[in-house]
Amino acid sequence: MIFYRSIAFIFALAIAPAAAFAQTSDADKPGIVSVTGEGIARLAPDMALVTMSVLRQEKTARAALDANNRAMTEVLAAMKQNGIETRDLQTSNFSIDPQYFYPKSTDNKPVEPQITGYRVSNTLTVRVRDLSKLGTILDTSVTLGVNQGGNIQFTNDDPSAAIDEARKDAMLNAIAKAKTLTEAAGIGLGPIAMISEQHRTPSPVPLMRAEMAMKASADAAVPVASGENQYSVTVNVNFELKQ
Fold this sequence. Notes:
Helix content: 25-40%
Oligomer: single chain
Shape: elongated
CATH topology of the domain at 46-157: Alpha-Beta Plaits
Number of strands: 8
Largest sheet: 5 strands, antiparallel
Strand content: 35-45%
CATH architecture of the domain at 46-157: 2-Layer Sandwich
């Protein structure tokens, strides 16, 4: 028993200096001020991503698929004639769906639905690098059989310069906030202890529905306004405080 008590006493003496050191280190740690900075940069888009769908409905799946294939083949050929490269054309969705008729039950018994036809949908994503052709491409696609619209997203092939500019503005904003806070508190601003960031890309702009575009004049391209893209960066910065 005396042996075990001696070991416990020696162990307590060994860890006592470490505990005291930890308490001293925590007390000596500088205070922290945390701020959030925001930066925004705007850039005219140089590219558009467009989704366009061909939907056909027939009595049989085979007939619906054949009708869809004919229309989509013409659309693809027209895209290439308008200068769209093969690398910028991608099938993004394809589906075959039966269409049902649900007869009314006369004796409260379940009635099996009847297949009345089939719908085939083929969706194409097109990357348009020459925005001056976008209106013509939309108009041509509807003329050749596109009857469902998706989204159009104006974007930039390389937005890195704009994002860097927003990043710099966000950091300057964070530093200004930290200086204001510490000056008001009557303390000094120390070095940066931590930085993290998040940035947001532009949101897609809805594309007019194809059935609406059909009402436009066949001789005129669909009017399109690209506007500007806004790139936002947020930084979270921790500064040490000088007491």
